[in-house]
């Protein structure tokens, strides 16, 4: 009784404080910012709310490229809002906020949603967006279309740093992760792949079939994908008990076997990477190989690979790169896109470690090989890895010079501190985001060594560094 009344008093006091602060801090409801504050992409993401879940429920006709349906967003406001933005490029039919019809004004990849009354701060909101469009006909402000179509009506929503606006409305930035249910109805005989675990198919009244996928760990919008087309889907169980789903395009031709000989080893590669970086952060495993894409991307739980990676035979290097991104990029994401070295430098170095485990030279030897193979006047040395510039995130400098940087760090601090730094980073930042400066601070703290000069030379300064350092110099 006594305890109960004390709790009531405390709750009342806290309530008063909230009300007072709320009324003074934001007396006038304001529009949410059209961007989340990324210097490379000022309109990526939005201000004023935080998404916890997306339910994407669509119908896709491969013959016409017509995509229709709805996305239901569960979010919480972080300020008093007169309106807020969604990042989206397809034509919107309607928007409701907490069941009330809202005004939706779309322009330049931003949808300004104005509910009939302002939203209080700290409030749970449910936003339902109905839409229909042909993603392949939609261009962003730069004239680019990220949605891809392949032969036989194949369609792929895969790209980095931007793909979501072509198929679902979102707060499109890695600093706002959420769980996802993705469901797409397609004609009989068409396969739909996405992230996470497979929740089965449901027959549709028109004879079509709905594919249901669920990703239950925090996931960035750009890592959420769908691949639609003709695939062989293989289901199995990994040694750690997790479900494995791989899919291979029916049209891989001469690369069909080399693709399988690479991607079927996904659980083995994850087991190796887990032994180095700590527990695998996600609940499912797999890979998708397609002719409809010219690159590989580390889509959460189930990367997508261009068939081109397998044209010279098996290639587990690319598999180890994309799977290492599950730790570096997907679980620990970039806080802003300037920090892309934390993704690409680390995944590239991880592929050297995988190669070492396969008896193909030590990681140190591979890093040295790359260092030697780029002459001092090569353009790679003119890119500032810690700030490559927007549109330049995937320059080979970020990958190769980025991986050399980690070898230089390893040489400077020794194997044991190096591995401890990587494992602490993935543990501390799990399901979150990081900045290069935070990684440098962690490296200095764990190693007990001043590392400013090393990182300044390798990441922040143009020109070929004098060398990778000498591990033998360690005491
Ligand atoms: N993160 C991808 C990788 O594994 C690179 C994606 C490149 N993006 C693109 N649109 N080409 O390296
Ligand atoms: Zn990569």
Automatic annotation (TrEMBL):
Q: Where is the Aminopeptidase N-like N-terminal domain?
A: 52-223
Where in this chain does the record put each Peptidase M1 membrane alanine aminopeptidase domain? 313-458
What the entry lists under InterPro entries is as follows: Aminopeptidase_N-like_N, Aminopeptidase_N-like_N_sf, Peptidase_M1, Peptidase_M1_aminopeptidases, Peptidase_M1_dom, Peptidase_M4/M1_CTD_sf
Instruction: Please provide the record's keywords in A-Z order.
Output: Aminopeptidase, Hydrolase, Metal-binding, Metalloprotease, Protease, Signal, Zinc
Q: Which cofactor does it need?
A: Zn(2+)
Q: Which GO terms describe its molecular function?
A: aminopeptidase activity
Spell out the reaction equation it catalyses.
Release of an N-terminal amino acid, Xaa-|-Yaa- from a peptide, amide or arylamide. Xaa is preferably Ala, but may be most amino acids including Pro (slow action). When a terminal hydrophobic residue is followed by a prolyl residue, the two may be released as an intact Xaa-Pro dipeptide
Q: Which Pfam families match?
A: Peptidase_M1, Peptidase_M1_N
User: What EC number(s) does this enzyme carry?
Assistant: 3.4.11.2
- Locate the transmembrane regions by residue number: none
Q: Give the range the annotation lists for the signal sequence.
A: 1-27
What family does this belong to? Answer: Belongs to the peptidase M1 family.
Q: Which protein is depicted?
A: Aminopeptidase N
Query: What is the protein's species of origin?
Result: Kibdelosporangium banguiense
């Amino acid at each position: 009784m006594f305890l109960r009344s004390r709790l009531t008093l405390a709750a009342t006091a806290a309530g008063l404080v909230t009300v007072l602060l709320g009324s003074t801090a934001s007396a006038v409801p304001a529009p949410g910012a059209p961007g989340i504050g990324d210097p490379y992409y000022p309109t990526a993401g939005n201000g004023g709310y935080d998404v916890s879940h997306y339910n994407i429920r669509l119908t896709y006709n491969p013959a016409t490229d017509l995509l229709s349906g709805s996305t239901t967003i569960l979010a919480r406001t972080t300020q008093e809002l007169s309106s807020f933005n969604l990042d989206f490029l397809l034509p919107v039919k309607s928007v409701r906020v907490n069941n009330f019809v809202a005004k939706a004004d779309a322009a330049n990849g931003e949808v300004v949603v104005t509910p009939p009354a302002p939203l209080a701060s700290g409030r749970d909101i449910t936003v339902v967006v109905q839409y229909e469009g042909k993603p392949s006909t939609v261009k962003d402000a730069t004239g680019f279309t990220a949605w891809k179509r392949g032969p036989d009506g194949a369609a792929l929503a895969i790209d980095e740093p931007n793909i979501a606006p072509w198929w679902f409305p979102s707060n499109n930035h890695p600093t706002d992760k959420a769980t996802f249910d993705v469901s797409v109805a397609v004609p009989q005989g068409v396969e739909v792949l996405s992230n996470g675990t497979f929740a089965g198919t449901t027959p549709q009244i028109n004879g079509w079939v709905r594919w249901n996928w669920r990703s239950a760990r925090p996931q960035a919008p750009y890592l959420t994908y769908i691949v639609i087309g003709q695939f062989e889907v293989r289901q199995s169980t990994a040694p750690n008990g997790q479900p494995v789903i791989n899919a291979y395009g029916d049209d891989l031709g001469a690369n069909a076997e080399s693709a399988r000989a690479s991607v079927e080893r996904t659980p083995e590669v994850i087991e190796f990477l887990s032994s180095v970086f700590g527990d695998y952060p996600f609940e499912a495993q797999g890979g998708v190989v397609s002719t409809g894409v010219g690159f590989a991307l580390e889509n959460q739980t189930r990367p997508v690979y261009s068939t081109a990676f397998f044209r010279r035979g098996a290639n587990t290097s690319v598999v180890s790169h994309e799977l290492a991104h599950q730790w570096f990029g997907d679980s620990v994401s970039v806080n802003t896109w300037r920090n892309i070295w934390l993704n690409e430098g680390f995944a590239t170095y991880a592929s050297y470690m995988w190669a070492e485990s396969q008896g193909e030279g030590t990681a140190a030897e591979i890093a040295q090989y790359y260092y030697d193979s780029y002459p001092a006047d090569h353009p790679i040395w003119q890119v500032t890895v810690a700030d490559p510039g927007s549109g330049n995130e995937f320059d080979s400098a970020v990958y190769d010079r980025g991986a050399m940087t980690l070898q230089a760090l390893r040489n400077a601090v020794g194997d044991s501190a190096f591995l401890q730094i990587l494992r602490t980073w993935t543990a501390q930042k799990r399901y979150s985001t990081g900045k290069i400066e935070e990684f440098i601070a962690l490296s200095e703290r764990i190693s007990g060594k001043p590392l400013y000069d090393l990182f300044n030379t390798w990441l922040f300064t143009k020109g070929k560094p004098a060398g990778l350092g000498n591990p033998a110099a360690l005491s």
